[in-house]
Amino acid sequence: MRERADVSTTKLWLLLGADRRLVALGIVATLFLGIVVAGVAHPTPAHQLVTASDSVDTLAQALVGSTVTGVTLVLTLSQLVLSQEQGAVGDQRERMEAATTFRDDVSDVIDEPVSPTEPSAFLRALVRSTERRADGLERSATGLDDELTARIREYVDGIRENSQRVRDGLDGARFGEFDVIRSALDFNYSWKLYTARRLRAAHAEALSEEAIDQLEALAAVLELFGPAREHFKTLYFQWELIDLSRSIFWVSIPSLLASTWALLFFDIDAAVSYVFGLPVSLLLIAGVVAVSLLPFAVLLSYILRIVTVTKRTLSIGPFILRETDRETTEE
Question: What residues form the membrane-spanning segments (predicted)?
């Protein structure tokens, strides 16, 4: 995935792989350290800046108001999105019939009487079926010129390598964790589907009937992987929204406590004291700001992952949006 994303490993880990709680804590720690550094670097002593006016009261009032408003808004929007899953019995029946039909279609292409029920096993079965169809294509590609043979072999080798990596990532992965979606994102089915169709259209006369059948069977599996990935991605987003709502609810409590404490109990007339050479008043204010903004740090950490996944899956089917994949298809 990193090679196709054309970003550093660290950035990709931060956007997708890292635990969202660690990302939120990192944002809060950055805020805390930034305020402390700014207070120390200011030419006026930090304690004098903090206690010289009613800036603490003004800041605390703003933090309380923004926390209440922001948390309420986020929870309301989350519930609005999740409420779309509710509907009349007729709508639910149509969804059930569509899901059953899709599972039956997948059972046919993976040559199993019943398709797996777990998302990781379901996607792994599709990927394994893709690999089997690719093996069949390589066996049927006989009597061709060297250039076309090498091209098909390179295509098949790429499918094998990618499929093995994705199946290893899906093995034992549990839905709700990001491992399932991360492995699904790593399977660049759009490029595979495009290449299969291009081989079929450009070399129909040279390919045997068996090879054409294998290409069509391979394309059929890839066409099912796209909707499956999008379905599980949608379910994962809903799962994340539930986790986000729960997390914001819990972190809003210490956030309100910190800002309310600053509003009611922070004493601007207290004598200056120091800890490790830093004024305690500066550390207290930095801590209050960091803890008060914890709900927004949690929100930002989840949004970073959701928008990154959304950007990487904007299209469905044989459409290549990223420059890295486009260059690969034109080789």
Answer: 21-42, 62-82, 248-266, 278-304
